[in-house]
Amino acid sequence: MTRPINFKRFFFKEGRLCLFVRCAISPVRILATTAAAIVVVVVVVVVVVVVVVVVVVVVVHVVVVDAAVLRNFSEYAQFLYRCKYHSNIK
User: Fold this and answer.
1) Which sequence ranges are marked TM in the entry (predicted)?
2) Domain range holding 62?
């Protein structure tokens, strides 16, 4: 007859989480790894958000400014054309 497994003693030996035979993973290491993973995820999310915002701002700025510049240039070109070919001043 086998005796029942003491799960607390099986999984935690000397304050360390034991998986199967190895007892190398301590709760502190698990917390540190989790905290590091959370920090990495937060940093990646912040970087992605900043890059997306910068790209959107640049694209909107280029579209708006280029549209204004092209419109002004078109009006200026039409003005020069009218002055050159439709002016009575010679």
Assistant:
1) 35-64
2) 7-86
Q: Where are the alpha helices (DSSP H) in the chain?
A: 7-11, 27-86
**Could you report how far apart the first and last alpha carbons of the chain are, in Å?**
119
Scan for tokens 């039409």, then name that residue: 78
* pTM, to two decimals: 0.49
Q: Which of 52, 50, 51, 54 is nearest to 62 (CA)?
A: 54
Structurally, the chain folds into a number of domains equal to: 1
Beta-carbon count within 10 A of 18 CB? 15
How far is Cα 28 from Cα 12, in angstroms, rounded to an integer? 13
